[in-house]
Amino acid sequence: AKSKGRNRWCFFSFDLHQKSVERQSLTNDLRQALANDELFLLYQPIVDLKTNRLVKFEALIRWQHPVRGIVPPDTFIPVAEESGLISEIGDFVFKQSLRQLAQWRSHYAHDLMMSINISPYQLAAPDLHMVGWFDFLHKLGLPGESVSLEITENMLMHHTDVVSAQLLAFRDQGINVALDDFGTGYSALAYLNRLDIDYIKIDRSFVKDLLEGHMEKDLCEAIISMAHKLSLKVIAEGIETEQQAAILQQFGCDLGQGYLFAKPLPVEDAEALLASQMME
Ligand code: C2E
Ligand code: CA
Ligand code: CA
Ligand code: CA
């Protein structure tokens, strides 16, 4: 029994070792990824639930790894956060998506908006070149109001002071703040008010079970009416069925996003959608 136990331990530590080697190799590759243009953005439509019109896109990052193929953000964003590469990646996301937004606004929809995911590690990092970002925004002729930053509820709680100071600077530029994955963390309502949030995004897990007789239906209704009392707009994410959309619409949910409307799209497909909407 003793030797069996030892073997098991050996196996366990080998496994841990493998994981750290794997992580190190991902980190090294990620360092190259930016230089080699392996990172790119997809754009998922966010629609006005009353009119069904596309009003903004959420930029979602992808990594085309030369050997592994597409690596999902849930895999490499944590690696980027741990290694500090998140600042450089965040800079890429900000500039690339806003360059795209400026172009689309001038060609297709002058009031189109862009939503960008921002890591709290990035917000807390001393090398966040915020002034450079604001210059960039001005050079593109984009009003701050056309940009939203999406931050997750949990991380916000852990980095309160630094993050809320940074957010204030963005808000001074008119940039909107959206609280992502709402309902999965612990934020108190008073807290939302203090941080001066503009949008909350109801997490996909609530929308998934949004059916007659399910607790999620009451929860969504309560979240939406609460948010509206606080003058917050509500975006529901992960809408996959007409039924979910109808219930959210009935509750007065402002915006919606999900496979029912469109998956995250490459530039050409997003452009085709913008063009078709312009014809309506
Ligand atoms: P998130 O911000 O909550 O993004 C929504 C995720 O849900 C996206 O996954 C999107 O593709 C997926 N999704 C959208 N509609 C549906 C639907 O109807 N059904 C289902 N099942 N899924 C749907 P994705 O693109 O894999 O991104 C995963 C997470 O990675 C994001 O979650 C976000 O936290 C992070 N992420 C993505 N892009 C960036 C980025 O540029 N910077 C940072 N810091 N994080 C990013
Ligand atoms: Ca998001
Ligand atoms: Ca989310
Ligand atoms: Ca998420």
Automatic annotation (TrEMBL):
Q: Where is the EAL domain?
A: 23-278
Entry superkingdom:
Bacteria
Task: Quote the protein name from its UniProt record.
Answer: cyclic-guanylate-specific phosphodiesterase
Q: What's the source species for this entry?
A: Marinomonas communis
Instruction: Indicate the span of the full protein covered.
Output: 505 to 784 of 785
